[in-house]
Write a structure and sequence with these properties.
This protein is an all-alpha fold. The chain folds into 2 domains: 90 residues, no CATH class; 145 residues, no CATH class. The chain is 58% helix and 2% strand. The radius of gyration is 22 Å and the shape is elongated.
């Protein structure tokens, strides 16, 4: 099929183009791909969708310039073009600014992968899955990730104060948790399972049990009842412990996609101190 394009546009087919890609060329590639494939809409809806798609591309390129300039070159790869189109399509539908921020973070991480690694596959899947979730569910993934998957090495020794450890968690939770699931809202967690972000097992791990296991040295002389008593002195942690123990959160573990989304949301809201995603997803 013969292709044509306007001034400054880039035409492409299913082959690798072995030339360098500037930011402007990357922008044109992404927008041409979007316009060629997105659903036919009314004029007003099409204008809104195109504006959102263009905003996502521009914001992604700006972040790449700051964090991974060489990643712009990846826009010539069909695999990366598809990832970008997936993000454009989903943001164009909703216009949700929080969603855009997470999509951009996932795309930037995606440009750091040179080969078809497990991390690349998981990031591609996350771009599609995240639009099935609301912000509350995304925050839940971050909460499960923090509690189940992380340990702060600054507080693992005998000489550390328990109060300092619990204060650290209090500060961390406050940066990303706005609402907590109730017993009546277990369908929120069931939907996370449906979306491929988590698993609900028969076995359970109560909040205080996890802390006892993760920080064995610092809690060496405390039984779990005493840990509950200590946590109850910290308002947000106390609420989270109650929600965790009374709902299916205590039965939940994350899949690789749940880890990717939870980690990305956490880094976006709480900072980069939680390490690279590759620590948890490698291969």
């Amino acid at each position: 099929m013969k292709q044509s394009g306007g001034k400054d546009s880039t035409n492409y087919q299913a082959q690798v183009i072995n030339v360098g890609v500037t930011a402007d060329e990357a922008r044109n590639i992404a927008l041409d791909l979007f316009k060629a494939n997105f659903l036919e809409l009314s004029q007003q809806a099409a204008e809104i969708a195109t504006y959102r798609a263009e905003k996502l591309v521009n914001d992604t390129l700006e972040k790449l310039k700051q964090e991974n300039p060489s990643g712009i070159e990846k826009m010539k790869n069909p695999d990366m073009q598809y990832a970008m189109y997936t993000a454009q399509k989903e943001f164009a539908r909703t216009g949700d600014e929080n969603l855009e921020e997470i999509l951009i973070e996932l795309l930037v991480e995606r440009t750091k992968e040179d080969d078809r690694t497990l991390k690349q596959i998981v990031l591609d899947e996350s771009l599609s899955v995240i639009t099935k979730l609301n912000q509350k569910q995304i925050d839940i993934l971050s909460l499960v990730f923090v509690i189940r998957r992380t340990v702060n090495n600054n507080y693992i020794n005998f000489d550390k104060e328990i109060g300092d450890l619990l204060d650290y968690y209090e500060r961390t939770y406050s940066k990303f948790i706005n609402e907590l699931p109730t017993v009546e809202e277990d369908t929120l967690l069931e939907h996370l399972v449906y979306a491929g972000c988590g698993r609900l097992s028969i076995g359970e791990a109560k909040y205080e049990t996890i802390f006892k296991q993760n920080y064995q040295k610092i809690f060496n002389f405390n039984n779990e009842a005493e840990i509950v008593h200590l946590v109850n002195d910290f308002p947000l942690s106390s609420q989270i412990m109650k929600s965790w123990n009374e709902t299916s959160l205590k039965n939940m573990n994350l899949t690789s996609v749940g880890i990717a989304i939870g980690h990305t949301n956490l880094v976006r809201k709480a900072g980069s101190s939680f390490g690279d995603l590759g620590i948890w997803i490698s291969g």
